[in-house]
Amino acid sequence: MTMKHFGPTRLDATLIPKIAQQWGTPVYLHDQAYIENSCQQLLDMPNAFGLHVRYAMKANSDRTVLRVVTNKGLDLDCSSINEAARAFAAGVPYARMMLTTQEVPSGEEREELEEMIRAGLKYNVCSTTQFQLIAEFAKSINLDLSMRVHPGATGGGESATRDTGSEYSCFGVHLNDVPTVKAMADKLGLRFTQVHVHIGSGGDPDKWRQNIDRELGFVKSYFPDATTVSFGGGLKVARMPGEKQADIASLGAYAAQRVQEFKEATGRELQMEIEPGTFVVANSGHIITRIIDKKLTNELNFLIVDGGMELLTRPLLYGSEHPIAIVRQDGTLLSSEYDCKPTAALKSFGIVGRCCESGDSVRLDNDGNIVPVLISEPEIGDYVVIGGTGAYSESMSPENYNSHRKPPAVMKTRSSELVLIRKKQDREQLTQNELDVKL
Ligand SMILES: Cc1ncc(COP(=O)(O)O)c(C=O)c1O
């Protein structure tokens, strides 16, 4: 293979040994230009009466990533008050955040939440209980609320584990309960000025379109005060060859038309909101690992690399696939799954990590068996680069399992500089909260 650049960020393979030598392996790598470009695509989404884009920061909550995204003009959706506090510490004002969470905290954290809301944090009510817990406070400061509605519709996720609108998923006020919560709010004089639905992390544009129709239907029936309608996240990126990326222009055109029709039917102009995580960061990220062992057996060939499920848990959790590139120690690109079709010259290897788990692999089938990857055969010391790892990798992984330390993260800046954005975890950090007690 004579190619030098690979993957959606056109990553220069000669950088891989340089990064590995400077910061060690494993290491997370991000690409500022890619993130900015995906933000811009989202900001350019067609719309009828205005568009507001929130980045679902659970996808990657690193402060540098948050700064890149918010400097481009995206606001944030936070899934806990810790995420909100973290974004604030990164310099993002609370007025640019919405909280979509499973809990209304109590005690000290409740006080923190109220301070955040007073400072402008938008509260997205996700259950009847949440409404009851927040209502008096909301009334006391005349707070307009958002409501996350559970639409009772399946198929919004790529797997059942990411299908957040189905009957097996508990997120949001269930449609049946909406009239009750609305009646309680009316009694208190509280308004829902925003309606929100997130049907999951999926790939089916038809489901996304159906959600728009359904959601506008219940905005019309139940939410006379709503001025903003959020269609959630779930915009797919093509991590693997053959996958189809969400067509932002066409989805936006559909949404714009429906919101326009809503205006014609009701006289109301709704601002549209979207809340992607994956689309913003997934393909900006790579994990660089080094091959530390190689075993050729009768059943399967194995490459053992110095990072696996503790850095990227999606394959184990969802059966998700990530494209593999093989780079030699001198920076030669041996093979790239993202860019090239499999050829006879390739050999199959199960790629496994260092954790004592048979499921610690970058590719697994639905039963948890390792699926071999077709690659050019590398040597011990060469690099396995895992693509599509910018989202739900470092923010989601069981990172200290087997007491491995969270690796450093590097950002390739717009001017192609390589900057360390997070240090490798110290060994002391693994145990710093443990107490020496006498039993
Ligand atoms: C409430 C909410 N909004 C947005 C997202 C982002 O989804 P995606 O990364 O598929 O765009 C999620 C993901 O879990 C979510 O829970």
Provide keyphrases for this structure.
Lyase, Ornithine Decarboxylase, Chain A, domain 1, 439 residues, 2 domains, 29% helix, 12 helices, 21 strands, alpha/beta, TIM Barrel
Overall description:
With 439 residues, the chain is an alpha/beta fold. It has two domains: 5-29 and 285-426, Lyase, Ornithine Decarboxylase, Chain A, domain 1; 45-281, TIM Barrel (Alpha-Beta Barrel). The protein is built from twelve helices and 21 strands. The protein has helices at residues 15-23, 32-43, 63-71, 81-89, 107-118, 128-140, 178-188, 205-222, 248-266, 278-281, 314-318, 427-431, and strands at 5-6, 11-12, 27-31, 51-56, 75-78, 97-100, 122-125, 145-150, 173-174, 192-196, 228-230, 271-274, 286-296, 301-305, 324-327, 333-336, 347-352, 373-375, 383-387, 409-412, 418-422. The strands form three sheets. Strands 3, 13, 14, 15, 16, 17, 18, 19, 20 and 21 form a ten-stranded mixed beta sheet that branches. Strands 4-5-6-7-8-10-11-12 form an eight-stranded parallel beta barrel, surrounded by five helices. Strands 1-2 form a two-stranded antiparallel sheet. The structure holds pyridoxal-5'-phosphate (PLP). Pyridoxal-5'-phosphate binds at residues 56, 58-59, 77, 100, 198, 201, 232-235, 275-279, 391.
